[in-house]
Amino acid sequence: MFKHSRTLPGRPSRPGPEDFEQASELFRALGDVTRLRILDALGGGELRVQEIAAALGMTQSAISHQLATLRALRIVRARRQGKSIYYSIDDAHVKRLFEQGMQHVGHG
Questions:
Q1: CA spacing 20 to 30 A to 90: which of 12, 38, 52, 79?
Q2: Please, are residues 41 and 53 in contact by the beta-carbon 8 Å criterion?
Q3: Residue 37 belongs to what H/E stretch?
Q4: Where are the domains of the chain?
């Protein structure tokens, strides 16, 4: 995800300004309660918008709006099967980041 921009002799590469901007966008997206609840719902596997909306007690339109943001940042991905679109967490990194955040708040 991050393109390290500079390497000094004998030192590991360091993130560049663009990397910090991308990370900021990622954390901003994860700073929304609804988006976190969507990730929690998707933690059990793929779901359709209708299923996520029912699980969260929200409208499909509201969920679709949040999923568009999460997709743009590659936090979730979509897979079409027939007329249905199934959403899932994009990769293990995102799932681990979410789980670690939830563990952190659980340690009071």
A1: 12
A2: no
A3: helix 33-42
A4: 17-106
